[in-house]
Amino acid sequence: MWGVTLKNHLKEVRLFNRRTLAFIILITVLTTALVVRLFFLQIENHELYTALSEKNQFDLVPLPPIRGLIYDRNGVLLAKNIPTFSLEIFPAKEADIKQTIFELQKIINISDSDIQQFYKQMSQYRRYESIPLKFKLSEIERAKFSVDQFRFPGAIIKARLIREYPMGANFSEVVGYVGRMSDYDYEKIDRSEYAATNFIGKVGIERSFEAHLHGKVGYQQVETDASGRVVRILKRTPPVSGNDLYLTIDSRLQKKAKALLKDYRGAFVAIQPQTGEVLALVTNPSYDPNAFVQGISQKQYQELQTSADQPLYNRALQGIYPLASTVKPFIAVEGLQSKVITAQYEISDPGWFQLPNSSHLYHDWQRGHGVVNIYKAIMVSCDTFFYNLAAKLGIEQISKSLNRFGFGKVTGIDLPGERSGVVPTPEWKIRTQHAPWYLGDTVVAGIGQGYLSGTPLQMAMATAALANRGELLKPIIIHQYQRPDQQVIKSNPVLVSKINAAPPVWDVILNAMYAVAAKPKGTAYRVFGEVDYLVAAKTGTAQVVRTKYDKEGNKMALPRHLQNHSLFIAFAPINKPEVALAVVVENESAAAAIARRFLDFYFKEKKRKHKEERS
Amino acid sequence: MRRSLKYIRNFLNPYQSGTQAPYHTWWQKFHLDGPLLAALSTLLLLGLCILYSASGANWEVILRQLARIGLGFGFLFIFAQIPPIKYQQWIPWIFSAGLLLLIAVLFIGHTGKGAQRWLNLGLFRFQPSELMKLAVPMMVAAYLAEKPFPPRPIFLLFAGLLIILPALLIAKQPDLGTAILIVTAGLSALFLAGVSWRLIWGLSGLIAVSLPMLWYVMHDYQKQRVLNFLDPERDPLGSGYHIIQSKIAIGSGGIFGKGWLHGTQTHLQFLPEHSTDFIFAVFTEEFGLIGALTLLLVLLVLVGRSFYISSCAQDSFTRLLAGSLAFTFFVSFFVNIGMVTGVLPVVGLPLPLISYGGTAIVATMASFGILMSIHTHRKLLST
After folding, report:
1. Could you give the ipTM of this predicted complex?
2. Phi-psi domain of A382 (left: phi exceeds 0; alpha: psi -120 through 50; beta: other)
């Protein structure tokens, strides 16, 4: 027994030693493999991994440029940047964003619209960037968050400059607003230029002068840790701020015009005739642009969009209105200049006009003005005279002359969304209405009805052209801009077209427009009467629907939204025009009164300024 | 063959060869082994150095690790005093208790990092799987030692059961890394006991065939790890991130490294788990290829000395146990470095004696205590 065990024992040891050797060989092979692997990583590919390691730790961080400021012509601030703190989330670092927001809501008041906005932006956001959840944190909210910050590895508080519009709704139609970049915006921009920017001009000056306002992005090379925290700044290319813009708008005039229009739907445009500078451009109702900066809620936006008053729609640029009787001075210029009629040409007005071989009567707004020449026709706004004149001129000539006054095409103002209105021609009617041109269409065009239409801005520019005795300028909205290096670039007047009429023609027209406001028979006399400045004006009443008569031949009352629009164009003083304006009030007859009160304010302010300068 | 073994023996045991007088030096009176202690201390010292850097000069981490090392030395000392015959007698009980604890963990265990591994014993938390890392090879060795050599298939089958049962329980926690180590420990004991090569190749073939089937029982995160191992670029910010960052750390270390406390990957937090599973990457980033080779050399000294101890052992139980512990120690080192350097999948195993935390360090040191016990409790005369 003992021998067997001994024999087994020896055999066993030999077997064990062989197996141990096998293990030692295996260990040698595996260790060699590791050494080869280390050699491969640390020597063969050392440079590659060094580069990767540097790429890891050195990050190129874009620096947002400071957006240019917007001032009015006198240096009153209209758009500024204020530092705020916002609560933001890195989506890449939070596994369960919904839960995180839920937890954050327990310590900070986050509205449903904030959350809605957050998710909306998450879908269109760059991947490694934090998305604002709530803007303008209060100090208490910041303190609350700091206490619990460890629970939210993907949430941070970030300082951001946010656009603010101190004048609120007074300037939304001109300045516009910035908003978060949409997918559509991303497609248009140079992404590297906007690498650090979240906001882009959406409407108004903010949009049309985006290239000026945005500035140039800066970069800094930083050493970061894995969570993106900056450990050290290595190299810095500072951003270049955007240009500061000085608008031609005078904020006092703008505010006054806005206040005057407060109770109405309508538009107001005031121009400096010699330069074409826009002094005031108002649409009412409008909206507070500040609401859009922080991301307006769906509900708020829907309210603005579906409101019957259409606050988002800029009536001054986009509102297409019949020119109505305000077109008469322009047609009169053409009549006299082309010598189709003379200043002495007279008609006898029975209260209607009739085309030869037609039984249709074109009614005057009054039951006859007696004997009427062009001076009186403008003063009393005689329709019959202009029906007749239009028929004599023909539509081709009328539209050509109105084109020369800038109607039927955009003025080219540096604000987005401008519309052109219509100066009809027979071809235009066939193309768009699929109907032939009738002589009757020409007749109603003579009093600015029918297809003829334009924007308040066009009316103001054409009025300025009357004040300039034929020089039509392009409306200018930027008075000057100042680059970050303090260099100032001023805008210069741009002549669009020149209406070549003899001085006596202008005398007749401007005299007649003077009479509109200054002579007892003038249509604006009741409103203007005795003012201490010389004003040339023309009233207009645009029919929304054709006047209906009852059985006794009396005009029937209409519901408010179908009542006539009132229009008014004017410039003053006649001898040395400083301001030309156009007012449109929808469904109410307040246009002339608004113009009067605006001009009163304008000249009072001017006197006050003079006094101030003297003393 | 015998000559080559003798060469290694001479290399690893500078004191004597062949017969040996116990209690030759003062530490042998306490059943300690000089070369093992020296190599262990070197490794632990290197580990503390790199942990200091990886933790961002956090003394609290160092003190805690020192406490664990102290505990580890305590276990090492105690385990070295226990004569191997006692282990052989107690192991069936210890093994059974370990199995019960593993079952207990499944029901009342504490969850950490998505796995149930811990039992709370009031004073400290305890991973029964660490106990099994020692108990399984010991059980297999004790079982086979009583059977004639080479073992018959029926005994092998039972021994296989002794390995598979705890391994499955641990894999279910889930802790794939420890399960693999336990299987390695058990199988290495079987291999050393002289399982026929025919059976080994046959089983290997079977495993190769059944590997695709394993795919279906794997957890999603384990599948992710395998997929990300095959192609780390698949999800560079998700689970492939570990491997990419680790390779960058090692590769950018170069020959001489970036210097102690100057590893950018670590100190800027790009490298995840840099104090625990990925500490080797920190080490090589800061000490370079030179450091890595030094570390491997110390490892080889430990493993070589352990195999020397096994070859000097006087009975089959201690021989099998020592050989299996030596090989398992090497494998746990190899798997961790293989994973960190991107040649093996990320299985979540710490670098023994160097990684921060866990009962792993205590268990590993205890295993060296057992090795010392085996070496110092030999009879005076040896063949």
Report:
1. 0.88
2. beta
